Each structure stands twice: as structure tokens, then as C-alpha cells.
Amino acid sequence: MKKVLEWSASCLQCATSPQSVFAPLSQGGIQKMTNTKTTATAGRRKAFVIALLSGACFAEAALAQSTPAPAADQAAVDEVVVTAFRKSLATALEVKRKDVRVSDGISSEDIGKFPSENIAEAIQRIPGVQISAINGRGSTISIRGLGPQYALTTVNGQAFKSSNFTDGFRYDVIQTELASGIQVYKSPTADMDAGGLAGTVNIDTVHPFDVKGRQIIVAGKLQQQELIGGNPTGKYGLTYVDHFLDGKLGVFLGGGYQELKDRGDYLWMDRWTVSNNVYTPARLRYRRIDRETKRSMINGAVQWKPTEHLQMDLIGTYAEDKTTQNIHQQVFLFTTPSASNVVPITVANGTSTKVQVNNFRLENNQQYENRPQSTSALTTKLHYTGLENWDFKAVAHYSRGNAKHNEEAAVLGINIPSATVDIADPKNVIFTTSTALTNTAQYAPTTLIRNTYPTGAFRTVGSHESAAQFDAKRYLDWGILESVQVGAKTRSEVLKRYVIRKDNQVVPASFSPTMANSGIAVTNFLDGQMTLPNAWVSPNLDAYREALKAQGISVYEGFDPLGSYRVERDLTSVYAMANLRGEVLSKSYRANIGVRNESTDQTIKGYIGSTANPQNTEVRLVAGNYTAKKSYDNLLPSANLSVDLTDNLLLRVAAAKVLVRPIIDSSNQLARTMTSATDTTGRRIFTISSGQGNLNPMTANQLDLTLEWYYGQGNGLSAGYFSKKVKNGVFSQLTCPTSYESVALSRDSSGVCVAANGDNYMITESFNDSRVVDIHGYEVNWQQSLDAWLPIEGFGLIANYTHVTPAKSTTGFRLANLSEHTANGTVYWENQKFSARLSANYRSAYDQTSVESFFAGPLGHTIKARTQLDLNLGYNFNERLSFAFAAMNINNAQEEAYLINASRWQETAVTGPSYFLSFQYKM
């Protein structure tokens, strides 16, 4: 942390000792993984001190800069003040005002200078948008309560395929330098691609014709997450924009490379037994994830306008993300080998808040995951206006996303004589074990209950799309009919997954690595919070690799046919739209009305499994192939109306029918899939998706009504109501048939589907809900300069609030990851030299199932309400060189969850604050 402080603005010079170090050490044969900083309280104090000192520093600068300028220079001063962040706000507000649709957006402060450290974190400032994070880093978004899979993401108006289609679009894969502006369209027009039931997020990249003159920009950034510690990682970027042939040819090229390190610690109750409505802990888990990411991105554009009426664009983007995760886990199987192991001591409010556990199993594992992924797009556009009153556009587009997920794990099983668990206080879970988790003697190879390596798989997930589009607009000026436009588009989409398994190679004691010689010491779990063992010894994957290599053992890699499939979709659309402009009751208005027809031909290709593969019984042999086809058409009308009630007061009304095709996630693969694993007792756990290729697309009839007031320079206040009536909502549920593949099944006391031999069957089926589900709510958005209210110029604020009323049903289609209340607020100040922003993001409690979160468990959980504070500081050294400092999550907000009852603790996750220091230089 000391280095980050030293590299920050000179006014933040602090005499501080290093607080966080992260490096492998050697201690008696055990490699050590630790953070040698003090406590969580010290970390929070440090973040607060940084914010306080920064605020004091910049307040002092503000006072120094507040001396009135001579009248002759006042106009120049005002012009400079509205640059950077304030200018980006004004630009975004003006785009919103001019758009006939219901939309909100964010504009870049300058080329390569986006007002956030992460695109997802920037989008969450827009009313109605919520994000989901991984290790504290924003990754996917939800709009108005509908999850990541229900939103469509485009770049320059064309599809941008996600690297992993089962998660929704991953915004953390692309760097902020890609975007010059982002617009969230909540009401569509007929000329837009269908597929965004929640809304459409469009990312505009830099176009050289939009930039004046030649620009060469060099940028760099240092970043550090406090929890993982160590040295800061770097980010480097270069941007070039130029024009040739008397301005008829424009060229843009941008590139960047970034390295990131972060960590997340997770403690949660993964399983419960339920008897007489009393929930008793059955499986406690520790999970520490150390993540390292290397990102590369290239973005280019060439625009050529050989004549006044003809323009051709070629735009290409490639983004690559190479992420590795080093995971250390402790899985405390309280009910293994018997549920009688758990003896309740205290029962309150339907929960066994304190239990004694005797003679139970502990599975200790290290898991390594290598997750390279990439996404790319190439678009050519032609725009011709050479025929009087005609406007023609043609587009050819290709986009591809690929992800590989290679995982391996060493799993060791031992017996723990006794332990006590007390979850009465969610802020302080108390857990004690009769033997220390750091004791290597209990891991003698000859006494291990389980000793397997590797347990893992290699998954390849890919998607690609090719598209061709043609649009024609005819300007008519026939009374209120300003123009009409028609268009057609063809899209060919492929989604595929291919899986290879490597499983359960039992490592004999004769050549097994020992914990005493090769174990990894994991310390400071949960940043020292909770009253529980925060250190343990973990198996060393490197030692296991070398042990098998020395014996000449190669692990069989078996194709997993029941985890592999391919989905093909041919999409054809045509539309017609009329653009209107006129007056009604002396009030001017703009409007459009149109209809779009979407035709879908879907083919699912998968494998039929036969008997178990004798070389790896976790996978099946291939018995054959199957193909499932489905076709459907959807007619999607839309209308948007914008009425100027006064020069500054605007009324919008929008109505449309929208759709999203059947989604693919961890519980619904469309194709039939099955995976299996074996635990320490030899019991197998089967995870099965029954395959629902006959699902219908979800549709919604939606209505938007907003009132917007624009006043002053860059000021605006708006309030809006929205409603979506969703039909064919898809829901998944765990089922337990009486038999599966001739194996008799029934539910045990905890509700798990089991066979007579104890094998677990997690069977998921997906259905269309026959009901119409109503989702409605309202949004309020305020953007205000405070120059007229305060004696010091440059202050302003942005605030928004969204309320979503979801369907209350606990059966059928229901919304997960939905906070009924979300709010964002930013207070900022800036002048010619300095800028400062303090932002708060709040979201109320929201439910998750195991589909949305690995940590939810089969019973799901509710994440508690959370507020995060972020700080941004800027300094313009001169017109070419600028610096910025950011501190994210300075209040150390944590993820906390409960099960059904708010007093029943289920999860605590710690990620901590992160810090960034950057510069940008214009040559």
C-alpha cells in the first residue's frame, strides 16, 4: 500500500510502513501463502484515511482555485471548467434528450479516458442497471430486474459475442478504452436487433471522423487490491488517430495490455439438513480464490469518404483475457459418514445455531483453473446518400467468442474427531476443531481417506455469428410523415461446448507427496475476521504433478459426450418503420412506429451416452447422436413518442413487444447433459440437465412513460414508470423422478434426490411458465451543477433511484439477482487543474439460486443490502499530461447472505478495497 500512496498526488505524502505483502515464502518445507498486514479494522482505517486526506487535499486546492478570475478571462475559465467529467455528463444528457427512445448513457471524458475503472461498474451508474461481481470486480449486468442473459450487448449496433455464452455478456473481458460512449436502450425501435428482453446495451467505439486532427495518446496505470497485497500490477495503452487525403480518410488504432491480481475469501454453509422445519448445518466450506489476469486488446477503424455521398467504414476489435485462478478449499462434511454426527446444542428461530459435530470428514483441496478467453468482431459498413431523398446503409459483420476452462485439483480426505459451530451471530461465526487445520501429521499418506489427483476437466466453449444487413430510408416530408425506412437482416449463430474429463487418479501412499514437505500454508483467511481457524495447510499441485511424472503415469483424458453439444440458429428479420414529426395542441413532437418480424430456425445437436467409459467411469461412451429442431416466428411492434411540453420539459411514451430466445445457463443447456463426480465415501454425485430444446422464446409487452426536465447547462431531472408483462418465462427446478436410467430414486431428509446406495442425483428440468408475469417500477434521475448554490464553483451531483416490483410467486418463473431498490449518487468537484468524485452505489437485498451463484447451494440464499463507496481524484498537469487516482470500495463493503430467515447466516465474502493510479499523455 505504501507504493500506491507514494505514487499518488504529492499532497498525499504520508509516512507509512508497508501494510500488505504477498509473496511465497519457505518455512520448514511448507510454502506460505499469506498477507502480513494487520487486521480488517486496520485496512478499513487505512482506506478511510486515504479518502480523508485526499478530500482535505483537494478541498484545499479548491479554495486556492476559487479566487475570482479577471472579467476578461472569465469566458475562457468557464469553457475549461466544462471539460472532462462535467463535459461527459453534459454530452450524455444531450444524447438522451435528442433520442426519441427511452435511453440513458455514459460518454467518455476523452479518447481512452472513460469515467470508471471497469465498463460494468460504469454502466451500473445508469438508472435500473445492477451488476454482479467476481472477486469484487464487476462482470455482468442486469437491467430492471432481468438478469445478464436477458440483455443484448452490441458494439456499434452489431452483435458482440460473449466469450462464454452461459454467463451472459462478460464486461470484465473488455477494457474501458474500447468505449467512447455507452447507451442503454430501454425501449427499442423496429430497426434494432431483437434479443434484449431487458434492454440493449450498445458500446460505441472511437470513429476517426469524430476526432479532430491527429492525436497520439500514451496511457499507463498501476493497480492494487489490498487483500491480495504484493506489488501493483500495470496497464499500458497507446492510441493513434489521424486523417489523410484532405480529411477523406480517417484512421484509428488503439491497443492496450493489462495485468490484474485480486483475491476473494468465501465462507458459507453449503448444505443443511431440514427436520420439523429446523435447519441444521450439514456442510461448511472455506474457499480462497487468488486470481491473476492478463488482458490484451486491439481496436481499429478506417473510415473513407471518397465522395460527398459515399462513406465506407471498416471496424475491428479483438480482446483477450487470460485468467488463472488458484483456489484453496476446506470442505467440512458434517453429515459424512452419518447425519448422526451432528448434535444440536442451541436451537432458535428454526435454526440449530450451535452444533457439536463428531467424527466427520474433511476434504482439503487445491484447485488450479486456467481460463483463457477472447472475443472479436469485424464490421464493414457502407453508407450512400447519392439519390435525392434516399439514405442507404449496408453492413457485413462477423463476431466470435471463445473460452477454454482447464481445471485440475488434488483432493485429500481426513477424519476430524470433533468440532463446534456457532452461527448465532452472522457477524462472527465461531468454529473450533479438535485438531489444528495446520497440523500436517494428520495428512500422513498411509492414513488418508482420499488422495486423488487430478480431478478436473477441459472445457471449450465457443460462439460465433455472421450477419448481413441492408437498410433504406426515404425522406418524404408529407405533413407529419418525415420519413419511412425498411430493412432486412440475416444472422447465422452457433453456440458449442466440448468437454474432456480427467478424474480421480488415486495416488498411492508409496509415492504420494507429503504435506510436511510440500504443503502450502494458507493464512489470513477472511482478512482475520470471524472466530475460526483462519489458516490451514493445503495440498501442492506442483508436487502431485511431479510425483505422477516421476512414476511415468499419464492421466487418461476421456471425451465427455453428455457434457458436449452444439446449437445452431438461423435468424431472419425484416422491418418497416415510419418516422413522424409535427405539432399537437401547439406542442412539437417526434415519434416512430414500426414492426419487426423475427424468424428463428434452431437445431440442437448432441450425443447419446451408453455405458460408463472403463478408463474413466465419470464419463459415458458414445452410443449415437441426436438432433432436435424447432422453428418459430415473432411479430414485434414498437412505438416511441417524444413531446416537447415546453422548451425544457419533455414527455416520452414508448410501447413495444420484445423477446429473448431460450437462454443457456448452468441449469439449462437446451441439450441433454450429465456430469458426475465421486466424494470421499465413494458416493457419486450426478448433475443432470434434461435438455429442453422445445422451449419457446420469452416475450414481453412493455410500456415506458417518462417526464424529463432539462435546465441550465448539463442539468436534468427525470422520472419514469415502466412495465413489462413477461410471457413464456423460463424456470428451472430440481426434480426427483421415481427412477433414472433404471435406478430407483427418492428424496432424503435434506431434500436431496438419492439412490439406495447413497448416490446423489441433481436433475434439473426447464419449463415455460404459462402465466403472464408482471414486472413494473419507476426511476428517478437527477443531474445538477451546484455553481449557482455554492460560493465555490465546480461542484455538482448525480443521483438516481430505481424501484422494481417483481412477481411475488415462489413457483414458476421468478427473478433472481433482483434488488427491489437500487440507488447511485456521485458528488463531484472539478476546475482547470483538479477533479474529485465520491460515488456511492446501493442495492437492496436480492435472492440467488445455485444457477446465479456457486455459493448459494441447492437451497439458494438472499444477499443482504450493500452500499459501496468509490473515490476518484484527478490532476491535469497541463493540456497534455494528466494523472488520476481511484480507490474502489473504500468502505470495505462485504457480501453477506442468509437463508430464508434474515437471522440464519449462510455466507460471508471478503474482497476489500482496490486502488488505481494512472496517467495519460497526449503527444
* Outline type: globular
Low confidence ranges: 1-28, 35-83
Largest sheet: 22 strands, antiparallel, barrel
User: What is the CA-CA span between the terminal residues?
Assistant: 31 Å
Structural class: mainly beta
The overall pLDDT, averaged over residues, is 87
Determine the strand fraction and express it as a percent band. Answer: over 45%
- Quaternary organisation: single chain
User: What is the β-strand count?
Assistant: 48
Number of helices: 7
Helix content: under 10%
**How big is the Rg?**
29 Å
Write up this protein.
- This protein has 923 residues and is mainly beta.
- Helices cover 8% and strands 57% of the residues.
- The protein is built from seven helices and 48 strands.
- Strand 20 (456-478) and strand 21 form a beta hairpin.
- The radius of gyration is 29 Å and the shape is globular.
Outline of the structure:
This protein is mostly beta strands. The protein has seven helices and 48 strands.
Q: What is the fold's blueprint, element by element?
A:
Layout: H1 2-7, E1 25-27, E2 30-33, H2 40-65, H3 74-81, H4 84-98, E3 103-107, H5 119-123, E4 129-134, E5 137-143, E6 151-155, E7 158-159, E8 181-185, E9 199-204, E10 215-225, E11 233-244, E12 249-275, E13 278-307, E14 310-333, E15 342-348, E16 351-384, E17 390-422, E18 430-433, E19 450-452, E20 456-478, E21 481-502, H6 515-518, E22 520-522, E23 536-538, H7 541-550, E24 558-559, E25 565-584, E26 587-613, E27 616-644, E28 649-660, E29 673-678, E30 684-689, E31 698-711, E32 715-727, E33 730-735, E34 739-740, E35 743-747, E36 753-755, E37 760-768, E38 772-785, E39 795-805, E40 821-830, E41 834-843, E42 846-848, E43 861-863, E44 866-876, E45 881-888, E46 895-898, E47 905-910, E48 914-922
Parallel strand pairs: 2-22, 6-9, 30-37
Antiparallel strand pairs: 1-2, 3-8, 4-5, 6-7, 8-9, 10-11, 10-48, 11-12, 12-13, 12-47, 13-14, 14-16, 15-16, 16-17, 17-18, 17-19, 17-20, 20-21, 21-24, 21-25, 22-23, 25-26, 26-27, 27-28, 28-31, 29-30, 31-32, 32-38, 33-37, 34-35, 35-36, 38-39, 39-40, 40-41, 41-44, 42-43, 43-46, 44-45, 45-48, 46-47
